[in-house]
Specification:
alpha+beta, Jelly Rolls, seven-stranded mixed barrel, five-stranded antiparallel β-sheet
């Protein structure tokens, strides 16, 4: 054996030994200690426990899922298992991963690490370039980081216990005692972790947008239904170039809460917020070229996979010459977690920039004196009006109207004001019910435009939910009510699989007993019907022409299309086989837009035929 060969062999041996020593003692890597096949024992508890030592545990013999008995009240579900460590001091950080979407408390060796509210939006644990945000699918397993300080203080060599407590569980019938993982970033191989080549890969990344970027920080607090919590808002909005995460921001103090009724059941939440000055005094603030407003909404399109139904309804209604809430498409980040496409919208309010009527004011010296106007909201309220009389069976099965005073707020009104509002609405309804000078008490133009936009869109919530009316003068002996502005059209344009919302034929005004009775009366009145047909015919040649509608749709799609890809990576609702309340299940965003256009075309054919007696081959020629 030559000396040269011996040198090469010695070098090879030393190199292999050095690499082995490095991997055994110095190599930093992620590894799994508890994998998804580990079977955890569990216990069901009806109340919070102070100790977890003497409770009754159940442990499946295999990986089969467990069927729970039915519980009448919410319960807590506790999972626990053991793991062994040879040298806990070389652990750098950890990650616990699980599927459950409930509020959870995590304990190691009986010591609480953290409690995470189910509604808390946490920064993603996905690894990606520092100047980008990962776009992770919402339905993936939740991951919680375990910091180094806690690991060093509360883990030990030998046997350790991890406990997960899920709180306030309702209607859970089957549980899985597997699919929970514990990973550690460790140095060397002493703890015999199963290697992980890399942590889970996100579906995409986000670092720039043609849309404005809203970054909200709730400072580790979850956003409740109410009341609003303090948070910070940073806005990136470059009018002449692409917005980048690294760009400078405009900072605002805000208070924020979740909003909506039905939409609160959706995974993608919508939010309401107010802007405040440095002393946290509420102020009207201009945001991304929208007029100053004290009240804002961040609406997250979710069931509406076209992303544009609300935007389309507002735009068309505005083109008809009415005030509709102005909006801008944005991309939202909460607590460094990408949330997708949202619409920043003005919340309905009385102001010169919004519903422009005299604001109701109370005389500071005499509480019996007041003047101005008010805004009403028809929705699911307990208080109901007097009409139609309960004994009257001639007006089908219509129920008395349920409304609330939307503005001014309750703290700005007294009993005399409320009584006066109720009296004026009662006068309004009585004159319609008795068909006595009806048009002295209602603005026929606003009522006609409302019925046209509602029936054009076939908004299944129309008339009875999120329906706004206003009166300009609380002191008038002949109060005149206007129906405006519009709100909540996200289930319209053929989206819903109930109330015949998917059917391009038929009407909404006669489809539900909670639709106010006066719509049926008006639609049987010759004056109203003549004005309605004339207005619809006029709009079909302009705003409601097929050409204008398709152009409007295309312009809205062009705004949000580049950002829609990341939105649907976050919220993988496309190509679903079942998704409430959707009738149509498109595989792509383009499919959803094509369905929207097709449905509107069929809807207009029906309205033309039914309202104007047009035949299907009659074509409207838009006016120039």
């Amino acid at each position: 054996m030559s000396s040269k060969f011996k040198k090469y062999l010695l070098f090879l041996i030393i190199s292999c030994l050095a690499v082995s020593i490095y991997f055994l003692f110095f190599y930093q890597h992620w590894g799994i200690l508890i994998n998804g096949d580990t079977i955890w024992k569990f216990s069901v508890q009806q109340k919070e426990l102070t100790t977890y030592e003497n409770i009754q545990w159940f442990k499946p013999k295999g990986k089969e899922k467990i069927t729970l008995p039915k519980y009448s009240n919410p319960f807590n579900l506790i999972f626990q298992t053991n793991f062994n460590l040879t040298d806990f001091t070389i652990l750098k950080e950890g990650i616990i991963e699980f599927n459950e979407k409930y509020t959870v408390k995590i304990l190691f060796n009986g010591v609480e690490y953290t409690t995470i509210n189910k509604d808390l939006i946490m920064p993603s644990t996905d690894k990606i370039f520092s100047n980008q945000l990962p776009v992770g699918e919402y339905w993936r397993e939740k991951q919680v980081k375990i910091n180094n300080k806690f690991l060093k203080a509360h883990l030990k060599n030998g046997n350790n216990i991890i406990t997960l407590i899920f709180y306030h569980i309702n209607n859970l019938e089957i549980i899985d005692c597997t699919q929970k993982k514990l990973l550690f970033l460790t140095v060397g191989q002493n703890n015999k972790l199963r290697p992980v080549c890399r942590l889970r890969k996100p579906k995409g990344s986000f670092n720039q947008s043609k849309l404005p970027i809203f970054k909200i920080n709730t400072h580790t607090n979850f956003i409740p239904d109410e009341p609003k919590i303090k948070a910070s808002l940073n806005i990136i909005n470059n009018s002449t170039r692409t917005n980048k995460l690294s760009d400078s921001c405009n900072f605002h103090n805000i208070k924020i809460e979740r909003r909506g009724r039905t939409s609160q059941s959706f995974e993608k939440k919508s939010y309401g917020f107010n802007v405040y000055d440095k002393k946290y005094k509420k102020k009207a603030q201009k945001l991304i070229d929208l007029p100053p407003s004290k009240k804002w909404v961040l609406y997250g399109p979710y069931a509406d996979k076209s992303l544009i139904r609300n935007a389309l309804a507002f735009t068309i209604y505005s083109q008809m010459g009415n005030y509709a809430p102005r909006f801008k498409f944005i991309e939202l980040i909460i607590n460094n977690n990408y949330q997708g496409i949202y619409l920043l919208m003005e919340k309905i309010q009385i102001s010169p920039n919004h519903v422009n009527i005299p604001l109701l004011t109370l005389d500071k010296k005499d509480s019996t004196k007041f003047e101005g106007g008010y805004l009403l909201d028809i929705d699911r309220y307990k208080t109901r009006t007097n009409y139609p009389p309960r004994k009257d069976s001639t007006i089908s099965t219509a129920q008395p109207v349920a409304f609330s005073v939307y503005a001014p707020k309750k703290k700005e009104r007294n009993a005399l004001i409320d009584n006066r509002i109720n009296y004026q609405f009662d006068v309004f309804e009585r004159h319609i019910y008795e068909k006595d000078n009806m048009y002295d008490y209602l603005d026929i133009n606003s009522f006609i435009d409302y019925i046209i936009i509602t029936e054009f869109a076939k908004n299944i919530d129309g008339y009875r939910l999120s329906t706004f009316m206003y009166n300009k003068d609380i002191n008038s002996d002949v109060p005149k009510f206007y129906t405006a502005p519009i709100w909540d059209y996200n289930f319209s344009f053929g989206l819903a699989n109930y109330h015949e919302g998917f059917n391009p034929e038929g009407y909404v005004y006669n489809a539900d007993k909670y639709v106010p009775f006066w719509w049926r009366i008006l639609l049987k009145d010759e004056i109203f019907m003549s004005a309605l047909k004339n207005r619809y015919s006029e709009l079909r040649r302009t705003v409601l022409s097929n050409n204008n509608i398709n152009t409007t749709i295309d312009s809205l799609v062009a705004i949000c299309e580049p950002s829609s890809k990341n939105n649907f990576k976050k919220w993988s609702v496309l190509n679903a086989t079942e998704f409430w309340p959707n009738y149509y299940m498109g595989k792509t965003h383009e499919d959803e837009i094509n369905y929207l256009k097709s449905w509107i075309t069929k809807r207009l054919v029906f309205l033309d035929k039914d309202l104007l007696g047009k035949k299907e081959n009659d074509v409207y020629i838009p006016t120039k």
